[in-house]
Amino acid sequence: GAARGDRVREVPLVRASRVYDSEAGKKVYRQEPVDANAFTQAVAAACVSDGGNEAKLLVMDGDGGALAKKAAELLSTSGFRNIVVVRGGANAWKNAWDSTMRRRQLAGSFSRGFDNPMFADSNVTAEEFGASTDDTVWVV
User: Fold this and answer.
1) Going by DSSP bridges, is the β-strand pair 138-139/26-31 parallel, antiparallel, or unpaired?
2) Which of 4, 136, 103, 10 is nearest to 61 (CA)?
3) Residue 51 — φ and ψ, nearest 5°?
4) Strand 8-10 to strand 2-4: parallel, antiparallel, or no bridges (unpaired)?
5) Which of 1, 41, 47, 54 has the most crowded Cβ, counting Cβ within 10 A?
6) Which pLDDT tens digits describe the chain residue by residue (140 residues)?
7) Is 42 within 8 Å of 1 (Cβ atoms)?
8) What is the pLDDT of residue 130?
9) CA 55/CA 138 separation, integer angstroms
10) What is the pTM of this model?
């Protein structure tokens, strides 16, 4: 699958492309048939250096629906043990996390950031505080 940074690898279950349909007179999405074996083999290949069947897997589709559940079922029957179906899918994920796997600051939510004015007299800065110590590599 495609690598996103050093902590996330993407392995799609469904592949679709936008093509021109002469009958409809416009571009439409055409989905390729789902190949369950190719999908599970691609996930296994992406997990080789991350614990194999013990790798932590996030499974999502657009809204946390049937495709995510189908992918999780395929992975479970293939022996993967640490599978999480993201409730709300990619739409919910993008609202909560940025592309570097850091939690977004949502409107109206509390921030413990050290760049907050309440820490103006302190010698602690966000840069000194450091990044997350969670080095988990996720396969999605």
Assistant:
1) unpaired
2) 10
3) 105, 5
4) antiparallel
5) 47
6) 455 556 677 888 888 889 999 999 999 988 888 899 999 999 999 888 888 888 888 888 888 788 889 999 999 999 998 888 888 888 888 888 777 767 776 665 555 554 545 444 444 444 433 444 555 555 55
7) yes
8) 40
9) 8
10) 0.62
CB 114 within 8 A of CB 107: no
Q: Which of 4, 108, 9 is nearest to 55 (CA)?
A: 9
Give the tokens for residue 17.
């492309």
